């Protein structure tokens, strides 16, 4: 497929790209993540002043955008999406959410560390950048601590549960054999041919970085935890703001809670039907026990896992290209990787803007885990790879003809991206890739978990009664509820529930986002009638790049 002819750059494109430059300058780690690594040796300012500067810049850009005139539909989409995104940055700042930004998976404490997972480490210049950023890390941690202290003074604090749990996580990063020690270990540096002085600098700075994490762990335990919130829920007003931020759409929270309960019941029923095909007369638990004992569906060791991921991904690309999707040649490259950490997550990182770094699927395998069930994880590969995140994000990066750099690299919401990934899982089932009952029950297992956390997340943060009417959604009740509906080891269940308690609105955006994607597809099919073409729908939707879900619906409506 030849590269598309570029569209003429507009005033609104220029505003959006200047905003991208501003974000990368103020949030250099985000620049590393999106492959626009202008400041590879710096950190964001995590102090209250740094957050205020970002909000002020957002308001200024919104004013500038309001004075500009859209030239075409591409501009109109940019204006809709960017204005709403800028509003949410300012609204979250005004709500003081940055002063309580602490959770077990996606707060500054994790972001400051995770940037090293994506930093190049091929030569002396790369390692010099790593050394310089390591040196800057203690200051970034100190600025973050300043925001949390300001929150303590204002009474805007995270829940005590998050402070205590993240303290353990931070201390682990700072262990003598923790992340920073591994980053500059003999094994990592053996073939680097770096000057001895640089190696010494790396190890000295890695030690100070580890010390900074131990220090913040002590702060969380001794200073924040005693003054943190007793209540886990964030409350309806803050939840509504965060839900809108993660989805890119306003929803009826109470209706969504009831829908989540209905969707969960539907998932349970569908799973029970499939389970009886695996174990005659058995239920879901019996079917899963049978599958977990099936050695023909197991992978042994992380290298076997990586090879299998790659094979599944390569086949999906080959099968779906030019049939149900238009997949450009550059987007067909997807690398499957074992992450250097052991946190238990599976995630995707997009290609750099010039595709010099391909899209990558990462598996962070917990320590001691050596066996993996293909029936359980097949749907995950489709979720993270093709037709999931890789196709979605890679297509946006490729579509330079229409999309400015902000639209390609930074725009979008969790509801759009994760909703698409769940849409992709169900689509692969509909296309016959999960017809094996074992693979299908694995997909349903994942979908059931996503439905369960819609109910749990909304239940906790909106202070709903629990489902058996015995009281509120306490932590212990939520753990028991989640144990009933997922098939994970208990350590992972605890981590997941801690995540939902500490990151309000994010987890439901997956399943709710899938709901919106399917609604938009079905609305388009009804509107177009016999002219509806699924491949054309996918192409048009993905060519928009990452957008808010309300923008997606409006854009597809007016571009029919």
Description of the structure:
This protein has 560 residues and is mostly helical. The chain folds into two domains: 11-233, no CATH class; 243-509, no CATH class. The chain is 63% helix and 4% strand. It has 24 helices and five strands. It has a three-stranded mixed sheet. A two-stranded antiparallel ribbon has the order 1-5. Helix 12 (253-278) crosses helix 13 and helix 15 (374-384) packs across helix 19. It is globular, with a radius of gyration of 23 Å. The two termini are 24 Å apart. The model has no long low-confidence stretch (mean pLDDT 94).
Q: Could you say which structural class the secondary elements and strand pairing correspond to?
A: mainly alpha
Number of helices: 24
| Number of extended strands | 5
Gross morphology is globular
What topology, given as strand order, has the largest sheet?
2-4-3
**Unreliable residue runs:** none
Secondary structure layout plus pairing:
Layout: H1 11-26, H2 28-33, H3 48-66, H4 73-94, H5 108-114, H6 124-154, H7 160-173, H8 179-183, H9 186-189, H10 196-224, H11 236-247, H12 253-278, H13 284-292, E1 298-300, H14 302-320, E2 334-338, E3 346-349, E4 359-363, E5 371-373, H15 374-384, H16 389-398, H17 405-409, H18 414-430, H19 437-461, H20 475-485, H21 490-502, H22 508-528, H23 534-543, H24 549-558
Parallel strand pairs: 2-4
Antiparallel strand pairs: 1-5, 3-4
Condensed summary:
It contains 24 helices and 5 strands. The protein is mainly alpha-helical and 560 residues long.
């Amino acid at each position: 497929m030849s590269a598309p002819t570029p569209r003429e750059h507009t005033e609104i494109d220029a505003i959006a790209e200047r905003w991208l430059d501003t974000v990368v300058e103020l949030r250099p780690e985000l620049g590393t993540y999106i492959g626009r690594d202008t400041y590879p040796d710096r950190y964001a300012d995590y102090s209250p002043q740094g957050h205020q500067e970002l909000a002020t810049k957002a308001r200024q850009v919104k004013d500038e955008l309001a004075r500009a005139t859209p030239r075409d539909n591409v501009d109109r989409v940019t204006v809709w999406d960017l204005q709403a995104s800028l509003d949410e940055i300012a609204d979250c700042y005004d709500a003081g959410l940055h002063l309580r930004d602490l959770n077990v998976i996606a707060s500054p404490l994790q972001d400051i560390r995770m940037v090293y997972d994506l930093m190049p480490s091929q030569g002396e210049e790369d390692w010099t950048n790593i050394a310089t950023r390591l040196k800057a890390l203690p200051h970034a941690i100190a600025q973050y601590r300043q925001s949390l202290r300001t929150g303590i003074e204002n009474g805007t604090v995270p829940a005590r549960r998050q402070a205590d749990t993240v303290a353990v996580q931070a201390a682990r990063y700072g262990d003598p054999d923790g992340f920073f020690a591994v980053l500059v270990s003999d094994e990592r540096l053996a073939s680097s041919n770096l000057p001895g002085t640089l190696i010494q600098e790396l190890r000295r700075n890695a030690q100070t970085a580890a010390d900074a994490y131990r220090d913040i762990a002590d702060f969380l335990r001794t200073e924040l935890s005693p003054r943190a919130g007793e209540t886990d829920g964030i409350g309806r007003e803050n939840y509504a703001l965060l839900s809108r931020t993660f989805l890119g759409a306003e929803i009826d929270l109470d209706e969504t809670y009831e829908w989540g309960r209905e969707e969960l019941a539907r998932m349970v029923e569908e799973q029970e039907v499939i389970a009886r095909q695996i174990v005659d007369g058995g239920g879901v638990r019996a079917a899963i026990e049978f599958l977990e004992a099936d050695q023909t569906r197991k992978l042994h060791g992380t290298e076997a896992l990586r090879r299998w991921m790659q094979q599944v991904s390569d086949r999906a690309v080959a099968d779906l290209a030019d049939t149900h999707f238009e997949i450009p040649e550059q987007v067909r490259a997807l690398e499957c990787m074992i992450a250097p950490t052991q946190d238990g997550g599976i995630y995707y990182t997009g290609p750099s803007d010039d595709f010099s770094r391909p899209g990558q699927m990462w598996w962070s395998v917990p320590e001691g885990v050596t066996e993996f069930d293909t029936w359980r994880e097949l749907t995950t590969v489709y979720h993270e790879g093709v037709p999931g995140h890789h196709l979605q994000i890679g297509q946006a990066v490729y579509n330079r003809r229409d999309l400015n750099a902000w639209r390609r690299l930074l725009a979008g919401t969790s509801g759009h991206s994760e909703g698409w990934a769940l849409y992709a899982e169900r689509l692969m089932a509909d296309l016959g890739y999960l017809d094996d009952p074992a693979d299908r029950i694995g997909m349903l297992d994942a979908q059931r978990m996503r439905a369960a956390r819609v109910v749990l997340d909304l239940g906790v943060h909106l202070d709903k009664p629990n489902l058996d009417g015995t009281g509120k959604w306490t932590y212990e009740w939520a753990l028991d509820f989640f144990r009933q509906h997922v098939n994970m080891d208990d350590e992972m269940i605890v981590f997941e529930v801690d995540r939902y308690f500490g990151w309000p609105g994010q987890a439901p955006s997956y399943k709710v986002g899938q709901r919106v994607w399917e609604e938009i597809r079905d609305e388009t099919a009804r509107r177009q009638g016999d002219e509806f073409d699924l491949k054309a729908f996918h192409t048009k939707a993905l060519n928009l790049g990452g957008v808010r879900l309300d923008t997606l619906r409006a854009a597809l409506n007016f571009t029919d």
